Amino acid sequence: MEKIYLTINEAVEYLQGLGLPVKKSTLYKQTMDRTIKFYRFGGQKIVIKIDDLKDWIESRFEAFTEDQYEMAKTVAESARNKERRS
């Protein structure tokens, strides 16, 4: 059974597992800025629903213009090729 809520650490692991290099501090900033929906558990602990995390990921990609998307794709391909050569 897949979890519904993730802690910040679990959310970072989840995103990194998808190939998105996100730091814990980035997720905390996104919750502070209210750009990602979150919930408080026990007053202090922050948890994020997986569906809200997926929505946030989609919104990040939608923010790219076509040129930015193509440039990011080119940079990613270049990094992969460089990795293969080493």
Describe this protein's structure.
A hairpin with a 3-residue loop joins strand 2 and strand 3. The chain has a three-stranded antiparallel sheet with strand order 1-3-2. The chain has helices at residues 8-17, 24-32, 50-62, 66-85; strands at residues 5-7, 39-41, 45-49. The protein has four helices and three strands. It has one domain (5-85). With 86 residues, it is α+β, with helices and mostly antiparallel strands. The N and C termini lie far apart (39 Å).
Helix coverage percent = 55-70%
Helix count, per DSSP?
4
Instruction: Provide the residue-averaged pLDDT.
Output: 81
The N- and C-terminal alpha carbons lie at a distance of: 39 Å
Rg measurement, Å: 15 Å
- Write down the secondary-structure element order: EHHEEHH
Shape: elongated
Number of DSSP-assigned strands? 3
Short description:
The protein has 86 residues and is an alpha+beta fold.
